[in-house]
Amino acid sequence: MADQNDILSLVLAEDVKSVDTKQIDAAIDRIIQESSKNYDEIGELALECSAALSSAQSRSSAMASRGFLKRSLDKLTGKDDRLRSAIEKDSVAAQYTLQQMVKGVLNECAQNQKLLMVVKSKFDSELLRLEESQLSIGADVVGVRKALVAVYNNYLLKTAEIETEQQRIRKHAGARCEYCKEALAQDQVVCPHCGTLQELKLERFPMDKQDKLKELARLVRATPDEWDLDIAWSSIAKKYAYSLKKAQQISYNAGVLSSGSKLNQDIEDLINKCRSAEFQIAVVGVLKAGKSMLLNALIGLELAPVGLNSTTAALTKFRSSKTGNYVKVRFYTKNEWANLNQSASRSRKTPTAEGETSLEKRLSAESVINAAQNWIGHKEITERFQDLPSFQEGIKRWTAADSDDHLFAAEVEVGIDRILFDMPEEVVFVDTPGLHDPVKYRSTITENYIGSANAVLVAVKPDALGEEAYKTVTTVLDHAGTNKKKVYIIGTQQDKLGKKDDYEQLISGDDGWIQRLTESGHYKDRRSASAQIFTVSAKLHLCMNKAMRLSDEEFESEDKFSTEEYNALEKGVKTALGVRRYALENLRNDTETVAAVTDYLGVEKLKRALEKGLISQYRKLKVDDIASDYVSCKTALRSRMATEVNERRKKIDIAQKGASALAESTAAAKKEKEALEKKMLQIEGTLTKLKEFTEGQIRSMNLYRR
Q1: pLDDT at residue 384, rounded to an integer
Q2: Residue 187 predicted with pLDDT over 60
Q3: Which among 210, 441, 681, 694 is placed 20 to 30 Å from 394, CA to CA?
Q4: Is residue 458 a contact partner of residue 487, using CB atoms and an 8 Å limit?
Q5: Element (H, E) at 535
Q6: In 432-474, at which residue ranges do the beta strands (DSSP E only) sit?
Q7: What does the alpha-carbon distance between residue 616 and residue 614 come to, in Å, rounded to a whole number?
């Protein structure tokens, strides 16, 4: 035990100044003697004293904080408060006390083998526990550190993602127009609010967008010369066309307008309308409503084929010509021909009138199929004629149902020598396919044309404004838009009504045309409706004109003036005059009767109305029509743009709200990160202290074991 005593003699008795060491020694001997029979207690005393001696804390505090030593100190000092205070306050005295307790226990063990084994066992068990504890603590430290590092790295990653998203959103939502200061989306270089081209900072955009943006900038700065508009007839029309073309191309580039949209088609149609000075007067109606006869009466020549079942889907245009009579034909493209065949096939179940052949059956004939190979996709042709009969046959070839050739014509233009048809060359009368046709393709052509035409003549049978006639009229009025003055309602074949007053009652009566169209809201009042309604007898008008041109010999000739024509004209004259008898041979010399009959037939009245309301001011009306359509297109385009802007504004608002939320989350994340870093430092400090304390205890145990 000598070595042990030497090892434990850390503090000598002479080092203790505040307390009498003899008093401490005597008290320790007493305690050991009292506990000598209790091996567990004395072993516990030795263990706690050794642990206290190895602690980095003050020895007095360590002794005072341990339960057993506290109890032993009570026994040691008893009621001697001075001694207790001296030991607790003096670390040297405390260390001396602990050391002497351990020395006393060891001396006792030297004399008692059993006690020695108990104390050794206590020390071995505690050492093993501490070593295991150290290993566990070490593993826990590593685990806690790994967990903390993982959490910390996740916060770093999250913070980086938030900051990246914030930068993206600021870039997206922070742009403003340089002129009006309204919000812009990230990829908008033309302000949708004021149209100002923004400064192009191409480096901000991906490479795949830079070429597109350059093209957009070019379009915005483009001049009228950059588009082949070829509009010389009107500077106003050229201005409208240029504005539309520019807006169309910019809208394409910006993704606001698609090529297949109705709005784009409307813009294209208006641009084409601006290109030409043509003032187009469309003649529409159901099949056999007298459209062709009405056209012939207005022209003054029987050029348009009549009395035949039309199977054509072509538009036939009639105009005055400075270069003589001609027929110009544009043929179907392959796509147009395919669409016509498809539409005809769908209408195969629609019944046809007796003796009529459906379009589907005509197109499926072997002769037509063979001929189609030559004509479909054929380049435009122009045929010229020196005399009227050959001219009429040429027109019939490309427009009449009894000719297969007419099936391949998509559009026919008939130029009439100015001597025969004195009309401004730009004024064009257009014979359209029938409305409500079983072949939808033909009806669609007509319906679409109504909207683009500058004026419309609606041919209906006047015997009554029945459902078919009423449907025809209202269809035209609906497709004509807001300008109802461009629509003229023409009751044809009015000679079939009988009495002269019958058609007046039909139009102006209590349940007449005027009343029905006013009540339906198509016209604001009876006066407006009345101004647009006319009745004519085109066939009789042509018949009377023919009779007035013939000589007496020709008038009497069956070949020149047939009995059928004679009887029809005679009946018409009697109806117009309201008489039972009239000698028709006197008509050509009876100017008063000619004037009365002409007035009754209504064609000249209609021509005067068209001359006054349309033809005399066709250029102004053409420009006004373009201006009206331009406003409609501009309004629609602005509406489409506004919709696009609103959608993008919603995205911007969401982005801005997201930016605020992200900013708040970033700030919270930063605070959490700082708190985590502080907590990590605290944990690491605690773990370090714990590790140092454990290592100190193990060293002390190893020391006392020796």
Answers
A1: 95
A2: no
A3: 441
A4: yes
A5: strand 533-535
A6: 455-460
A7: 6
Is the dihedral angle over the CA atoms 572, 573, 576, 581 positive or is it negative? negative
Distances in Å between the alpha carbon of 369 and those of 319, 324, 407, 663?
32, 34, 11, 73
Token pair 């919603």 is at which residue?
A: 650
Q: How far apart are CA 168 and CA 48, in angstroms?
A: 65
Which residue type does 253 have?
A: N
> How is the beta sheet containing 455-460 ordered, strand by strand?
381-385, 325-331, 409-417, 315-321, 427-431, 279-285, 455-460, 487-491, 533-535
Q: For 426-443, what is each residue's pLDDT tens digit?
A: 999 998 877 666 666 677
Give the pLDDT confidence of 253-279 residue by residue, as tens digits: 777 888 888 888 888 888 888 888 889
Report residue 695 as tokens: 């290592």
| SS3 state at 386 | coil
pLDDT reading at 227 higher than 90: no
Supply the pLDDT for residue 649. Answer: 73
Residue 118 vs residues 44, 124, 184, 581, 702: alpha-carbon distances, Å:
10, 10, 87, 159, 17
Contact between 190 and 250 under an 8 Å Cβ cutoff? The reply is: yes
CA dist 566 and 579 (Å) reads 17
Beta carbons of 457 and 491 less than 8 angstroms apart: no
Q: Where are the alpha helices (DSSP H) in 386-465?
A: 388-399, 440-452
Q: Measured between alpha carbons, how far is 181 from 194 in angstroms, rounded to an integer? A: 10
Check residue 327 and report its DSSP letter: E
CATH of 277-537+602-613 among 2.40.50.100, 2.50.20.20, 3.40.50.1400, 3.40.50.300: 3.40.50.300
Distance of CA 647 to the CA centre of its chain: 8
- Identify the three-state secondary structure at position 317: strand
Q: CA–CA separation, 228 vs 263, rounded Å? A: 21
Backbone angles phi, psi at 680, to 5 degrees: -60, -40
Q: Where are the domains of the chain?
A: 2-111, 277-537+602-613, 551-601
* pLDDT for 103: 78
Cα–Cα distance measured from residue 535 to residue 601, given in angstroms and rounded to the nearest whole number: 8
SS3 38: coil
pLDDT of residue 2: 40
What spatial distance separates the first Cα and last Cα of the chain, rounded to whole Å? 10
Rounded distance between C-alpha atoms, residue 19 and residue 10, angstroms: 17
Q: Which helix (H) or strand (E) holds 612?
A: helix 603-613
- 76 has which bridge partners? none
Task: Report how far residue 304's alpha carbon sits from residue 526's, in angstroms, rounded to the nearest whole number.
Answer: 34
Average pLDDT, the chain: 77
- Taking the C-alpha atoms of residue 650 and residue 180, their distance in angstroms, rounded to an integer, is 19
At which residue do the structure tokens 């002129």 appear? 179
Token pair for residue 500?
């002269």
- pLDDT mean over 111-130: 67
Q: How far is CA 628 from the centre of its chain?
A: 27
Query: DSSP class of residue 280?
Result: E
Rounded distance between C-alpha atoms, residue 293 and residue 289, angstroms: 9
Fill in the amino acid letter for 491: G
DSSP lists the bridge partners of residue 417 as 321
Residue 139 φ/ψ, nearest 5 degrees: -65, -40
